[in-house]
UniProtKB/TrEMBL annotation:
Organism for this UniProt entry: Staphylococcus pseudintermedius
Keyword Thylakoid among UniProt keywords: no
Keyword terms, alphabetized: Ligase
Protein name: Phosphoribosylamine--glycine ligase
GO BP: purine nucleobase biosynthetic process
Gene Ontology terms, MF aspect: phosphoribosylamine-glycine ligase activity
């Protein structure tokens, strides 16, 4: 990661674990913005929920928002 304090983070998932992770990341002064692919009602208060129907949409979002870190949640 870069040595500045402007990290854009993308979290892919929409469960409680993603919300809990986002809460902690939001407290980190190095995190500039949080984006969620799908997200949920709680994550919309922490960052921007985005529609991501296919992996191509995730790639487009990451490029558009200049994502520095992507966290892909495990799904069942």
């Amino acid at each position: 990661m870069k040595d500045n304090n402007n990290y854009n983070v993308l979290i892919v998932g929409n469960k409680g674990r993603e919300y809990a992770l986002a809460q902690r990341l939001q407290q980190d002064e190095r995190v500039n913005a949080l984006y969620f692919c799908l997200g949920n009602g709680g994550t919309q208060d922490l960052g921007e929920n985005q529609e991501c129907e296919h992996y191509e949409h995730i790639v487009e979002l990451a490029l558009k928002k200049q994502i520095h870190l992507a966290i892909i949640s495990e799904e069942e």
